[in-house]
Amino acid sequence: xxxxxxxxxxxxxxxxxxxxxxxxxxxxxxxxxxxxxxxxxxxxxxxxxxxxxxxxxxxxxxxxxxxxxxxxxxxxxxxxxxxxxxxxxxxxxxxxxxxxxxxxxxxxxxxxxxxxxxxxxxxxxxxxxxxxxxxxxxxxxxxxxxxxxxxxxxxxxxxxxxxxxxxxxxxxxxxxxxxxxxxxxxxxxxxxxxxxxxxxxxxxxxxxxxxxxxxxxxx
Length: 219
Hints:
By secondary structure, the protein is mainly alpha-helical. It has one domain (3-29, 44-215): Fumarate Reductase Cytochrome B subunit, CATH 1.20.950. The chain has nine helices and no strands. Helix 3 runs antiparallel to helix 5. The model has no long low-confidence stretch (mean pLDDT 86).
């Protein structure tokens, strides 16, 4: 078995299994916890929980005015690399083939040159996020190994993908195998680190919106 066979076979299969099991375990362990009953009196005319949850999510898509100046860079940069990662994962033809193999669905791909440019921008944005984490005294103080490792496993597939597409330093089959292994590492770590916020953000912001709405909080 070659390195490429291992990467696109057992390694990715194991990584997907860990990813699915880990995400389901994290979500179920949270949702099945006993929920404390909110005994506060809801304000008159309060919308449904679904409306309040959606409002709470939308409300936090942009910083509140008092914090806009200090949070503007982090917010915009966060959107840049999140959107960039989505374009890479769902826009590259080779990745769409993977999605079709997994779920039997596909869609038109973006030109490879466009995805390459987006990948470079995304990498620059991720490096900027790391730079802010290292240079901002408050953010640096609050950062843990979890933050740095989550950044690393997110950035590594972008780097290895760019190197593979550029055919640099090694045969393409080896570069592709390394890229797939980096994706496997990302999937394995995803449920157990801060990358899980991709799922939990909807729950946490939604529940915050419900709490705000019941008590008449407006921000």
